[in-house]
Amino acid sequence: MVLLLAGAFAGQLVHNSYLGTSWAHAMQRCQLERPKGPSVTFIQYNDYLQRCTAPAQHRRALVSLAGALAVAVLGVASLWVLPLRVLRRAGPVTRASDEWQQRTAAAAKDMGINRVPLVVWGSVWLKESFTAGRPGRATIVLPVGVRALPPAQAEALVRHELSHVAVGDVRLVWLTRGVLWALPPVLLVPLAVILTQTWRTSHQTPLTVIGGTFLWEYVIRAALLMIVSVLIAQLVLRSREYEADARSVHGRSAAAMEALLASQPAGRPTWWQRARANHPAASRRVAFLRRGSLPLRIPLVGTAAVGLLSAMALQAVAWLAEDCFTGTPLAGKGRLAAALVAGGLLSASWGVATWHTVIAGEGSAPVPRTSLLVLGTSTALGLLAQVERTGTTDSGTMFGWPLLVTVPIAAAGAGALSVALAGLWARRRRPHRSRWDWTAALCVNVVLFAGALRIGEDTALFLGIMDWRDAFIVNGLYSSAAQTTAVALGVVALSTLWATLRGNHRHEPPGTRHKARAARPPRTWRGVASAIAAGGPVGTMTVSLVAAAAAVAARGAVQPAAAQGSVWMHRIEFDWWSAAGAGCACVLALIAFRGIRGLAEAVYAAPVASFLAAAAMWGYRFAEWARPWEVTRNYAAQPLAQVAFVIVVLAVPAAFLPARRPPRLQRTLPAVLLVAALSTGIVLAVLHAGTRLLL
Questions:
Q1: By C-alpha distance, which of 379, 442, 369 is closest to 410?
Q2: Structure pTM?
Q3: Cα separation of 417 and 353, whole Å?
Q4: 116-148 tens-digit pLDDT
Q5: Where are the alpha helices (DSSP H) in 366-434?
Q6: Fewer beta carbons below 10 Å: N end or C end of the chain?
Q7: Which of 180, 186, 229, 150 is nearest to 10 (CA)?
């Protein structure tokens, strides 16, 4: 993704060098010919501007996309070119005997591989085996020294190479190497274009005309992007070896593979050799085989790379999408598209891997606090290091310098929420998880990270136009993306509630659950009270109901002066704030009482409390509505957006709290008392704040 965005940036610089003057003239003409007069509304002016600037913006987007397409073609071509190049370097290769072909075919049949790869011998200088070849036709290249190995170890080596074919990562590894080959020329294209155009127009030394600031700024950013891409590629190349080792010994003894790895030279490589190595150390692979499992933890270096590249994609996609969407029904949705792309990158590369780690430990894995800090810090660095900002560093980011604080906090908060939800999922779900379960986990993570990034951007925007205290208070409720944020929180809350209410069936054999349900005695009031006191989903939903009831009661008991008279909008806004107060009280109470576990429970308890309180206040004023649909939508969305903002902000400190589990008879009652007091206090504070919190 980042390679494609680098190609799009190269295309944008080409556009600015050759078509920038005509683009500027088109923008100026649209400004001069804009409709004038007191009767022209902002909507009319914006519609005209979208229609007028659309051709120029679309042309710039097409040139940028042409650069991305050129990079994509270069990367796909590497799937054919690089394997052939490596085969020539390993040669001259000779076809292995029929005996080796038959042994490979037997192993391939045992592993479920339909198309058997060809086995060839490399030159006498080849030291490591590898798998290459064009897509659809793999070739296993073995060193000639393999013929001297014991038969069991030779078979283990062949099965390891076949495992790469079985899992389909051969294309992945060559595409990864293709990225490393394609990135340098892509990053050099903008410099070549600018230098050439400068020489053509001014007939002066290009370096003198450009100035050292732009040149060195671009070189530093490009070098950082190259270093991070190399780190990502090395992590990909190494991590695939563990899966190939596991698949090669599946259902068999691992003794032969361990002996093969133990026979490798035991020298101590230098740090440079370790950094350049495409395979993990043999000792790590042996330890993995003996342990039998490897939690898919992302190392801190990988976390830093993921955060940096995702932040680069956030701004790059936003600018490209705004150009593409100009004059279309999607105009103004560029930031949302960018958040979805960057959130998807964070989810697929960090969120799901973290879920694997937490679920492997059945919810008892430690919270990766250091990883969360690294994720936030690298996100801030990515916002600064993106190549699109070359030459404009002194003007800050898109939403000013506050963006360097708000977006990293939001990214770290989404990471903390992901860890908390993974722990809840692991404790409440069965150990065997299908592909649909992991698809649901990916979707939840995408919504979490994309929604958090949008909240971070909106917070930066509010910080740029008002005092920081007011910005943090009103950001969620009055955000332009309030409805989108509310939908995102609703999706996550419903998914979490569904996983929670499904119950803990991890240790029940098939069919036992239905028998236990049939034999379960009927519920009594004493049984319901015991279930509430015991905590769990019933106790958490009780906390939600109490918070909503306390907020509604406080709102009905006090009628502030600002809401009296003919200003009916103030009454509605006080209702929104009161409903949001119920949800915020749930978040504070559950985190304070249950620590990091309370954060996961707050994800579904707080929206329920806010929604119930808003529904009660909406029903009380039902007779006043002239436009019921619009009012209903706002009553549902605005409080939930504020609750989402509070959850994301509080997720970071909550990740550093321990997971507390009180005694059985004290799991719900103190939380109920605390949430009632907090909900009442928050609503009364809002009502006595006057118009300070209102539009």
A1: 379
A2: 0.83
A3: 14
A4: 899 999 888 888 888 887 666 788 999 988 888
A5: 369-385, 403-428
A6: C
A7: 186
